[in-house]
Amino acid sequence: MFIDFETFSERADNLRKLMDKACAAVGRSPAEVVLMPVTKTQPAAAAAYVARYGLGAVGENRVQEVMEKRPAVTAPLRWELIGHLQSNKAKLAATHFDRIQSVDSTKLLERLNRAAAELGRTLPVLLQFNSGHDPAKFGAELTDADAMLECALGQASLRVDGLMAIAPLGATPGETSDLARRTFTNLRELRERLAPAFGVPLRELSMGMTGDFAEAIAEGSTLIRVGTALFGSRA
Ligand SMILES: *Cc1c(COP(=O)(O)O)cnc(C)c1O
Question: For a pocket test of ligand 1, which of 209, 212, 213, 226 has the largest count of ligand atoms closer than 8 A to its C-beta?
Answer without folding.
Answer: 209
